[in-house]
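User: Predict Cyclin's structure from this.
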Amino acid sequence: MKCSEETYILALIYLDRVTAKKTDLVLNIYCIHRLFLSALVVAAKFFEDRYYKNSYYSKVGGIANPELNTLEMEFLVYIDFRLYVSNEEYENYYNTLIEYFGKKQQP
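Assistant:
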């Protein structure tokens, strides 16, 4: 999917917010791609100046468009519509990823 590096990092932050809030959430091979796709769509719509329609994301993600629409709304509810990420929080995630993968680039 064509998204900026920042969008992928925001999606990761949003995923962490969901898993911190919904401790009973069961992650497995049947649902993880739906959760990640939901996070990515929300992050793209929040951050990108141009983003694709949900029909594109649903096709790439291999799920029906109505299901993605529902997942997106549920995801927003799970994170209490808290989409803002401070520079400090973003940089913390960015630096952690750089350390983990051993690649240094400017954000």
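The mean pLDDT is 91.
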